[in-house]
Amino acid sequence: MARIPLEDNFNDVINKTQRGLQITDADLAQRAEVTAEDLAAVKAGQPLDAVIRRVAFALKLSAAALEALAHKRWYPQQPIFPAGFAAFNTVHEDMTVNSYVIWDGRTRVAAAFDTGATCEPMLDLIRAERLSVHYIFITHTHDDHIADLTRFAAETKAQVWASELEPAPLPGAQTFKENAHFHLGPLAIKTLLTSGHSPGMTTFYVTGLSWPLAVVGDSIFASSMGGSATHFAEQYRNNREKILTLPRDTVLACGHGPVTTLGQEKQHNPFFAR
């Protein structure tokens, strides 16, 4: 698979944080002790280090991580799963979106997470590996994540599951509460409510593969997190309390951008590095 670009640039991180905290440009310039012109330049994508550091401090972001992001100095090392895990990146309008499949190598029983823009690559894998998909889990019901759900559900005959707090993704879809448990042979899947980006945004924590796995949807991205103009604090709190507390070697399968690991994000994500 070609290297997937990071979902957000450094100025996207600044803009998301500022919008979430409802801080005006004038207020941010004053807090960061920078000129309005320098702030505008940074928000437009100019990597002015001194300004970036001041803005990071004002927004309680990691200055070192934000500066590294501005200069493209870091990209997550990709974890390797010998078997039982596959990631898919498909084009949806002006962005790309991810979906995932996990399976038990002995029974060939599988679960999918979202569909992305098209489920065709997922179906190709399912046929090639002779998998039987029992579950389709939805991280959240934004259009880009469930664009091909109707077809995928019809092709696989799998049960569709989403949070009870999300709009129904499909007629007949089943709903779960937080801390619901599912099993695929030796694989265990637990639901964690990481709301904020959407009301029922769910992280699926999977054990039994080569590495612990968290399918996080748009809760966290490599070097960033999902945006929310109205529930930013809720999302940030859920990320810190429910995702950042998972084992350090947990692989984060994000809704956009590359796969990463919790340990790497604790070092390189401007929102969480210290």
Report the portion of residues in β strands: 15-25%
CATH architecture group name of the largest domain = 4-Layer Sandwich
User: What is the overall number of helices?
Assistant: 9
**What is the C-level CATH assignment of the largest domain?**
Alpha Beta
Average per-residue pLDDT, rounded, comes to 96
Q: How does the major sheet shape up?
A: 6 strands, mixed
- Category by helix and strand content: alpha/beta
As a whole number of angstroms, the C-alpha radius of gyration is 19 Å
Q: In total, how many domains does the architecture comprise?
A: 2
Q: Compute the separation of the termini in Å.
A: 32 Å
As a percent range, the share of helical residues equals 25-40%
User: What general form does the structure show?
Assistant: elongated
Q: List the helices and strands in order.
A: HHHHHEEEHEHEEEEEEEEHEEH
Walk across the major sheet and give the strand order: 1-2-3-4-5-6
Ranges with pLDDT <50 over ≥5 residues? none
CATH superfamily of the largest domain: Ribonuclease Z/Hydroxyacylglutathione hydrolase-like
Q: How many strands?
A: 14
CATH topology of the largest domain: Metallo-beta-lactamase, Chain A
Structure, briefly:
The protein is of the alpha/beta class.
